[in-house]
Amino acid sequence: MRATDAAYAVLKAQGQPMDVQDLLDETLLRLGTDREPRIAARIYTDINLDSRFQYRGGSSWGLKEWQPKSPGRNIASRERGGYEDDDNEDLEEDDG
User: Fold this and answer.
1) What is the mean pLDDT of the chain?
2) Domains of the chain
3) d(CA 58, CA 71)
4) If 6 and its partner were Cys, which of 30, 42, 87, 96 is the partner (CB 3.0–4.6 Å)?
5) What does the chain look like in DSSP terms, one character per residue?
């Protein structure tokens, strides 16, 4: 098992963001590896580079999938070639 997959499984099981040190400890435990600074640093780097993880501030990390999905533009609006905010539909200049 890759270290990032183990870290993902740890966070998924936890169900909420974790302090990076706790995340590293639990990940190393899952991998059956002793905590060595070089190994912990490599796992931390890999977590930083893996798009499944999201830094939550302080020293907390979570999963990107926990972030609420942002609402996209309205499909009907896209089909018209407009935007969701139709308040500005009459932006044509008046020649009169």
Assistant:
1) 84
2) 3-66 (1.10.10.1250)
3) 27
4) 30
5) --HHHHHHHHHHHH-S-EEHHHHHHHHHHHHT----HHHHHHHHHHHHH-TTEEEEETTEEEEGGGSPPPP---HHHHHHT--S-GGGTT-SPP--
